[in-house]
Amino acid sequence: MLPHHQFELAITVIIVAGSALLLGYWFRYTCLLILSAKTACDYAGGVAAANQLGFQEVQTRLREGSFVDFDPLRTALERDYSLITFLLKNASQTGAEESSIETSMLEMYYRMMGALYRATRPFSAEAARHALEQMSAVVEHLANVMGERAALAGSLA
Q1: How many helices (H) and strands (E) does the chain have?
Q2: pTM of structure
Q3: For the chain, domain boundaries
């Protein structure tokens, strides 16, 4: 039988671990909900064309399924992500208040999927592909947010 203080410590560890798991589940589920939400107008394609972003090509190549070397796709996504986050941070901040938490969560999710990609690439092509799909979905969403902001700023001008 465990002494009383060890029993309390064990219960505390179980509660903290359970809470951390639930927080992780909530975070992932919330990010997936954000990414699955469709807007009235899709600006991602226009933003991609105007800024020479390659996430649409990456998505096409991932859907084809015949691509084995994922590193060039990841490099293209990293370039797109860097550019789109730079544009979001330095563009007009119209409407930025309501999407700043959402954007921050997606940026964290993108980094987590990047770490998952690096961890799974040597062992599982399917898991690496899924991580890249999630990363490209984040870039697409952020490009759409950028397009919405630009459209709103243009209508206010």
Answers
A1: 6, 0
A2: 0.86
A3: 1-37, 40-156
